[in-house]
Amino acid sequence: MHKSVKEQFNLENKTIIITGGAGFLGYYFAEAIAEMNANTIILDKNPKTIAKTKNKLFNNGYNVDSHEINITEFNSVKKVVENIIDNYKQIDVLINAAQYSDEKSNKKFEDYELKYWQNSLDVNLTGLFLTTQAVGKQMKVQKKGGVIVNVASDVGIISPDHRIYQPDKRFDYEGVPFNTPIDYSVSKAGVLAFTRFLATYWAKDSIRVNSISPAGVYNNQDSKFVEQLSYRIPLNRMADPNELKGPLVYLCSEASSYMTGANLVVDGGRTIW
Q1: Sequence ranges of the domains in the chain
Q2: Could you say which of 153, 184, 219, 237 is the most buried, measured as most Cβ atoms within 10 Å of its Cβ?
Q3: Which CATH superfamily does the domain covering 5-267 fall into?
Q4: Which of 162, 156, 127, 137 lies closest to 215 in space, CA to CA?
């Protein structure tokens, strides 16, 4: 254990892979890891999105590696993990950031389609299972420990506040044509249970498993929606995605060496109300 705080946060030359690394939050996670001079590897399903993300990171001064992957398919995951091992010899950190949500849906639960429920479970839980299983096996073989960070959500802890999507004449608010679907909340609650299970299971192997639960991250949402959500957050605003970088690096690094099975909530205080 390093005594220097600076050394505790050091990720230089660590091999860190990020599923969903070409997604909205995945980009910021990849940038954070690259800023720390780690071997940054983004995994995603869409080659065009991967290329766009890599180009954006390159223009900001960061070189990252990438692999196309379908995390819901065993053979795809196995092949990618084997390729990473061939190139980098070991994996130090896995960040499970890939996720699916039918966020454009505004259907009521009574009319919600099974295919969207199944898609969420396939990506948010089965994909999580397959990727973590493959990487965890490698970490055990390495016998050097490892770190796994699962991206959960505030709505895995609390229910979404359905009122923020619905019209409210008191605030001259017409509502928005989307909501947080039930499968997203349920799957993110599953991520928390998954984290706790593996934290105890792999503790003897010095593999730490934690989760991070962001809430209310700003991404050019409707201004009235932002107003409604911010009103329900003690800090009275949504998060800037850059505000997740520090907490993520903390969980990936030796600075959190005495943490496992924990859920780091980054929500502006929303879940305490």
Answers
A1: 5-267
A2: 153
A3: NAD(P)-binding Rossmann-like Domain (3.40.50.720)
A4: 156
The answer to whether residues 222 and 157 touch, using CB atoms and an 8 Å cutoff, is no
Six-digit token pair at 199? 């934290």
Q: How far apart are CA 30 and CA 266, in angstroms?
A: 18
pLDDT along the chain (273 residues), means of 10: 90 97 97 98 97 96 97 98 97 97 78 92 98 98 97 97 91 89 96 98 98 96 94 97 98 98 98 94
The pTM assigned to this predicted structure is 0.96
Return the HEC string of the chain.
CCCCHHHHCCCCCCEEEEECCCCHHHHHHHHHHHHCCCEEEEEECCHHHHHHHHHHHHHCCCCCEEEECCCCCHHHHHHHHHHHHHHHCCCCEEEECCCCCCCCCCCCHHHCCHHHHHHHHHHHHHHHHHHHHHHHHHHHHHCCCEEEEEECCHHHCCCCCHHHHCCEHHHCECCCCCCCCHHHHHHHHHHHHHHHHHHHHCHHHCEEEEEEEECCECCCCCHHHHHHHHHCCCCCCCECHHHHHHHHHHHHCHHHCCCCCCEEEECCCHHHC
The pair of structure tokens assigned to 182 is 């039930």
Distance CA 9, CA 14 (A): 11
Task: Mention every residue, 6+ apart, whose C-beta is less than 8 A from residue 234.
Answer: 268, 269, 270, 272, 273
